[in-house]
Amino acid sequence: IPTQALNIDCTVFFEMYHVSRQSFLYLKSFYIGELAPEDLTKLRNGAENIEASEGFLQSLRSYTTEWRVQIRETQGDKVHKSL
């Protein structure tokens, strides 16, 4: 992982380098789950404060809604996160 991509929301990189429909479908192969809401606050937004466009985020949601895990509630200390 390039240093510039550590500890940030890398959605903007995905938008810049992988904009085809096939890329969205290929993304499913690498999906391992969602970050807990409290962990999201620990990430910086985008690369150098550049964020993904709203249009891209809508496309991403439309291609991934069927198979993404939905976080419903916090499980306390018994949460296991796989890397």
How would you sum up this structure, described in words?
This protein is an all-alpha fold and 83 residues long. The protein contains four helices and no strands. The radius of gyration is 14 Å and the shape is globular. The two termini are 14 Å apart. The model has no long low-confidence stretch (mean pLDDT 79).
**Largest pleated sheet:** none
Shape: globular
Order of helices and strands: HHHH
Give the CA-CA distance, first to last residue.
Answer: 14 Å
**Average pLDDT value?**
79
Q: What structural category arises from helix and sheet content?
A: mainly alpha
Rg: 14 Å
Strand content: under 5%
Summarize the structure.
With 83 residues, this protein is an all-alpha fold. It is 35% helix and 0% strand.
Secondary-structure blueprint of this entry?
Blueprint: H1 11-17, H2 21-27, H3 37-40, H4 54-64
Feature tags:
globular, 35% helix, 83 residues, 4 helices, mainly alpha, single chain
